[in-house]
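Batch manifest, entry 17 of 40.
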Amino acid sequence: MKFISEQVSAKLISHELAFIAVRAAFIDAAQTAITFPVVNAHGSDSKNRFSIKSAANSSVAGLKVGSYWPDNARQHLPCHSSTILLIDQQTGQLGAVIEASKVNAYRTAAADAVAADLLARKDAKVLTIFGTGHQAGYECRALAKIRDLQMIYVVGRNPERAAAFVQALIADGINASISGAQKACEAADIIVTATTATAALFDAQWVQAGTHVASMGSDSAGKQELPVELLESAELFCDLSSQSTRIGEFQHIKHLVEQGSKQLTMLGEVLLGEAAGRASNGQITVFDSSGISLQDLSIGGYLLTKAESENSLVSL
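Output type: structure tokens
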């Protein structure tokens, strides 16, 4: 069995590698790959949650276990943890174990970046980010690599955390400022939500024509970041249609999808040229990223190849 530790995977991962791997996973999802239903569970204390996401394509099969322990922050530990398990398809035994907590943050941000690269206007310069947590920072930095961002407006509940978040972006050479939700939405070319919200974070009327919106936090029943009115009027894109309407942002308009009055387009279909992306500069596009295991498996494969080439792969 091959093993990559958290320390090694954190050194191997980059926004560029994640972008390539996740882009390939979107295409797989739209072709012959199989994604199995997500299993959401919790620890002895129900606020401590974990999920199991699994999939298989023509060359790889496996799963990702991701956990969220919110009280870890008090112990100065990461709240999120992630492990990728790849199955040896000849024997059914574990072929590889990859500790991938930092990798998971890159993976999630890469999904946003691939979607924005397809759907956001080419001249998009202003990003509004809802959330000031661990993931939100990766989202901003990934998007800064695919669009020439002149300003990032940060909307957060905690003023101290928002100020620290802004200072961290500025230290990386990215212009950023704290803002109220309405002003930030009205000024935005791209809006990204990276929160654990269970209700809409802003009003649909604040979103201007031509804006691209991405929900990165809705990944279980009951979560919600975007107003339903926005979903009813915008063009909708997702990583996996069946999952998006079950646990993603589009669970809130599932009835409209089932009735046929709203259409969901999988991002892989756009990448394959089988469906249209942004049709005009005035169109509002929405991308729902509920997170699919194919992305983790794809990144796992890239990391194994890179680790082997750099002699940092361990066999157990």
